[in-house]
Every structure is written in C-alpha cells, then in structure tokens.
Amino acid sequence: MSDHRIPRTESAYSYPLLIKQLLHCPLVSCPEQEIIYRDQLRFTYRDLHERVCRLANALLSMGVKAGDTVAVMDWDSHRYLECFFAVPMIGAVLHTVNVKLSSEQILYTIDHAEDNVLLVHRDFVPIIEQIKGRIATVDHYILLNDGGEPLTSSVPFSSEYEQWLAEASPCAEFGDFDENTRATTFYTTGTTGMPKGVYFSHRQLVLHTMAVLAALGTPQQQGRIHQGDVYMPITPMFHVHAWGLPYVATALGVKQVYPGRYSPEMLLELIDHEQVTFSHCVPTILHMLFKSPHIDNVDLSRWKVIIGGAAMSRALCAEALQRGIDIFTGYGMSETCPILSLAHLDEEMLALDQTAQAEIRCKTGRTMPLVDVRVVNDKMQEVPRDGQSSGEIVVRAPWLTQGYLKDTRNSENLWQGGYLHTGDVAVRDNRGYLKITDRTKDVIKSGGEWISSLELEDIFSHHPAVAEVAVIAQPDEKWGERPLALVVLKEGLETPPGKRDLLALLHEYTETGVISKQVVLTRVKFVDGIDKTSVGKTDKRTLRDKHLG
Predict the structure, then answer these.
(1) Does residue 425 sit in the same domain as residue 472?
(2) Measured between alpha carbons, how far is 121 from 143 in angstroms, rounded to an integer?
C-alpha cells in the first residue's frame, strides 16, 4: 500500500501554532497603530512588543519557568493585554482571576491553579490582605498601580509593575515548543460548589482567533470587523480572554482602547473621543449605558456590538437599533473559548424593518468555520431543523476545553458521547440559525409541556414599565411547575402597572399563537432587583433560593 502523506524536507520549518505568531502581522503592517488605556496612556504596537519582551524577561528573572502559573487580578487594561501574550510566550500558564468572586472562592482558585506569581491591582489588595496567610503557592506579588497616593499594605510586594518592567531587558527571543502546551486557565462561575477550572492551549487559542477573524471579517455588510475599526472590550478580560477578541484585534492590528474599571461616563467618553466602532458586552452593561444621562450626547451610529453571556431581549435590541447601533448576538460559553456562532444578517434580512431584524439579531446565529453543532434529544439523536423541535446543543470544535482542571468526573460528564454538552436548549431552522430557548436546568416543565423562561422574559421586557425581568420555575402540586416572573419596574413611574397589566400582555401573545397557552399559569412578583453572577448573567440559582426557599 502506497504512502500518500506529504513528504517533508528535513530542513523545513514545522510551524507550531503558538500565541507569539499572532504578533507578526501587526508589527510589520501597523507598528505605529495606537493602544490606549482610559485617559491615562497611549502607546504603539511597537511599544507593545517591547513591553511584552520586558514582562517576559522580568518573569524569567524572577524564576518563572515553563509550566509555572502567573495570575492576574486587574481591570481591563493594557497590562492585561501584555500578560495575554508574555506569560504564555515563555511557556507559562496565565490564570485570569475572576475578581468578582468571593474572597474564599478567589483563594480556592489561586491554590487550585497553583499560582506562582500574582499581579494584583491596588483596588484588589484588600482581598489579598484577607487571605494572604492561607495562600500556599504564591512566591511573588507584583503591584499594578494607576497612580494615586502611596500604598500601605501588609502584602509583601516584590515590585511595582512599571518599575519591574523598566528594570528588564526590552529584547527577547521566544523559542518554539509544543503547540498543545496549556496557555491559559480561568474558573467558571458555576451555580453549585466551587468554581471549575477550564483551560486552553496555544493551538486552541490561535485557531479560535483565526476562525473569529474569518467569521467577523467576511460578512458583506453587517457586523464586520476590519482594519479601520477601533476596538474596545466591555466584557471582563478575566472571563474567557474577553471572548478572545483582544487576540483578534491584535492579530488584525486595529486601534485598541482599554477602559479599566467600567463606569458609564468613562465608557461613553471613550466611545465618543476615541471613535470606538467595535465592542462586545452583556445585556446588563448595555442597559447601564442606556440609562446614563450622557447617552444622548454620544453618536453611536458607527458602533458595532456583539451581545452575549445572556439572552438579548427584543426590546433592548430595538432600542439599540433606534440609536443606530449595529447590534447582534454571539454565542458561546466558558468551556468553548468561547465563540461558536454569530447572528449575522444577509442582504435580504437587512432590507426588513427593525422589528423583523430584531427577531434575527436576537437569535443565537449561525456557526463559525470549523464548528460542528448539533441539536439533539436525550438519546443524542439530532432533532429536525424546523425552527420548532428543541434539543440540547452539543458541539465539537478544535478550541473547546478538553475538560475541567483536576476534575475527571465533571470532565467526563461534559464530554459524554464525544461531544461537549452545553446544557443549552435550542431550536434550529432550515437556514441554520440557532435560537436558544432555555438552559436545560431552567426550562419550566408544566403540565407535560416545556415552557421557555427566556421567551417569557422577552415578552415581559416589551412592557414599557419593565426595567428587568427573570422567570424561574415555581413548584406546583397540580402542574408540576409553573412560571414565576420576577419583575423590576422602571424608576419614577407615575402610574406603575399591576400584575394583571403584565399578565394581559402575556395573554395577547397566547391568543395569537406566539406562545403556548400553558403560560397562563404564570405568576408575577415585583422585586427590587435581579441577582447577577460575577460576569453579569442572571443568577437563577440565587433567585430560586431567595424567592422559593
């Protein structure tokens, strides 16, 4: 039998997919392009490369070696971007610490990841002061500082970041190693037990970057990212590498803006002053911006925004479209690096009115290149692509986490049947558009029917008096479960609606056949706020404990 493999010349270079390769193009094609931190710092891609080299040398001189773990606790900053590259480029692992976790959870993740060095912003020093006596693995602490009064702390800092970099060499040669080497780890905000660690290799991060570049760079009109864009993340860099978009923006060589700690005023000022054109955020952040008294002073007509992390309501989408924002959904999860699909619109869809467009823009979208998504029943059989038959999304792609760090049992459950199980319930239509209808753990099973909590939330959000809503399953002796809508009303209403007013809106949808008549069982409860997870998602476990306990 003949060998059909491609012959390889012994002297040929076998090109490993390493994170360092993402820097080649911008350093050649746009070395003078700007990277900006708040209103405090501006520098170029050439400077970025020098700072990455200095950071790598500083870590090596501290004794960090391949396989060690370097942790970061910071707001969205240029320092984080430098860590995204320098730490994995020396063969170490970058642990992006979720600063919104409790101090006990942060302690757990630091010890579980076996962090050797911890870079910590002065805002988070009080957390480290609480737990430092119980941290078992960290040898060195580095202070991240935006200025201000000198810091007095009991944490034994080895150096301050800028001073540390200034003392290191600006030149470095980054060697090759196995592209399957682990590059990053972070911890999911699970609803039960301690957070679970997910991890990604150089190969996975590079392939995810290239696939996102293809998916976002090829649409004919809508939702494109290109070299004329100005990028600013508005999802935390500790969470799935800010959805991987900083790697995409750097590989593309676009102007980048990092906002630090989020505040509506600073975000809107940067969007306006730096002419930001491409961002991504969760619905909560967009709600926050829309409520700002400064929102009407900013032209948002150039702004393209991917919404993810939680379902986007049609009401929020409609308001964004009215402001000229090119808004659309992206889908993924911590375990998927994260992006799997995007709700791009083709030319025919863009000719529709805004109401019809919003319906599409709020869907989960079509899959990116190299993503194999299936919607399956409990026997792993694919359900019809008719826009009605629902099942769980399972997926294969070359950048999915291979499991949970030091957790064999949950890793096996995640990958049952050779596909990663997302826990999301969805339908898919004949054009390939996915639409998530619920989480498997949040779907409401009432009288033999499945009721989508997300669909009910979307309907209630259309009422002009509703600021926020979350729907959970309430146990019921007769029906098994019935929906309970937790509603936050807008402030300053002259005549707040009653529960019957909101249920009347729901009945309008049942009469037109948009939603099952089983939802007439819905109950409404007015609340002061909706609990969120550390990354801005609705925390339905906490809501169930609070309102059903």
Answers:
(1) no
(2) 6
